[in-house]
Amino acid sequence: MKKVLSVILLLFLLSSHAYGETFQGGVSERGQSNSSRIIDKQTGEGIGGADINLPKQNYSTKTDGEGYFELDTTINGPSIMSVKKPNYKPFTMTIDEKSLNAPIVVGIEKSNASGMALDTNMYHLGDDSFSELSANAGEFSMQAIGPFYTKQFTLKSLNLAKPIYLVIGSIIGIDTAMARSMGQNKIPNAFASPPEVYFNGNKISELQLNGDGQRIKLPPSLIKKNQVNEITIKTGRNLMQTAYIDYDDIEFMNLIIENEN
Ligand SMILES: [Ca+2]
């Protein structure tokens, strides 16, 4: 299971850095356009008035009537960009300074009954102490809420006969040995344990890599049908620091519960 997940993550990472790509929930295509644009994934038409937000830079803009936009800000290191438009699924992707050299074309999808946005805010976990070489070396605009995040929810209107997934829109800052071996950070002598995801008190996943659209299946045996369910994300700790606890500083945005059709 872990191996399969890792391969999926690798595919995501490998597919996310070509020029002028269209990003659509993990499936990417080359775009034709020379300007950054938000389009409807089904129709290919530009979406006007979509909100583009870079929380770390405290920067936001809107698309014009044709869906075009410009990012008039400085980006230093991996940053999460979110796209919001009423009646569409909230979308995030990770960009960096290189992303500004080429147009970004994003296809977003109409929201439907087969999923729900759990939380579209951005969160910073950790202790606000991190290396300049970490995977999240850009300046943080927000303070850590501590080493873990937790959220309660019910699963009304979902088809429990089909698999249900937690999708993490974007996550940055993970400094595991695997993230280091993939070139996601440059810290030579330190690495952290992976962030852990818990569902109703049981660990269901470890997040070894940074990336967009990481999908974690909620084990059916743990799902509470007509009661409150709980997701917890716990950040890792620096395994080379034994004198005190140094939590890995990470940021994530956009938690979605998805139901397979
Ligand atoms: Ca830290």
Short description:
By secondary structure, the chain is mainly β. It contains two helices and 16 strands. The chain has two domains: 16-108, Immunoglobulin-like; 115-259, Jelly Rolls.
Question: How do the helices and strands line up, and which of them pair or pack?
Answer:
Blueprint: H1 2-15, E1 21-24, E2 27-30, E3 37-40, E4 51-54, E5 59-62, E6 79-84, E7 91-95, E8 105-108, E9 115-125, E10 148-153, E11 164-172, H2 177-181, E12 196-199, E13 202-206, E14 211-217, E15 229-234, E16 250-259
Parallel strand pairs: 1-8, 3-8
Antiparallel strand pairs: 1-2, 4-5, 4-6, 6-7, 9-16, 10-15, 11-14, 11-16, 12-13, 12-15
The protein binds calcium ion.
Detailed description of the structure:
The protein has about 260 residues and is mainly beta. It has two domains: about 15-110, Carboxypeptidase-like, regulatory domain (Immunoglobulin-like, Sandwich), CATH 2.60.40; about 115-260, Jelly Rolls. The protein is about 5% helix and about 35% strand. The chain is built from two helices and 16 strands. The chain is flat and about 55 Å long. The protein starts with a helix and ends with a strand. Bound molecules: calcium ion (CA). Calcium ion (CA) binds near residues 126, 129, 246, 247 and 248. The site of calcium ion has 8 residues, from loops.
